[in-house]
Specification:
114 residues; alpha+beta; 4-stranded antiparallel beta sheet; two-stranded antiparallel sheet; 6 strands; flat
């Protein structure tokens, strides 16, 4: 079964990282990717919320707004799609995502249509 894994973190904390800390975090992500390569079907970090555009359609009109739709403490910073046997396996893998110790990881089954 496929699971969407959404990585939320306070992106303002990124400015507190010096180059060495940032490089260490990226190495941890590389190690995570290598360790779980058999389960990862797609992945990608997202650019900061300043680059986001929210889209809504109301009354047949498309409305766009700069930035995320909701104000939150943590922002969506990246995502993965995992292929796992069950939710327990998906959450176990998600617990090893490097940002799990400074943000939160949401794991959700991907709907399938027969």
């Amino acid at each position: 079964m496929r699971y969407a894994v959404l990585i939320y973190r306070d992106e303002s904390l990124n400015s507190q990282f010096d180059r060495e800390q940032w490089d260490a975090l990226m190495r941890r992500y590389d190690e995570f990717g290598i360790r779980y390569t058999d389960h990862i079907r797609a992945s990608g970090p997202l650019q900061g919320i300043a680059t986001a555009t929210s889209v809504q359609v109301r009354g047949g009109r498309t409305l766009t707004t700069d930035g995320p739709f909701a104000e939150t403490k943590e922002q969506l910073g990246g995502l993965l799609v995992l292929e796992c046997d069950n939710l327990d396996q998906a959450t176990e893998i998600a617990s090893h995502i490097p940002d799990a110790n400074r943000g939160s990881i949401e794991v959700r089954p991907v709907m399938t249509f027969a």
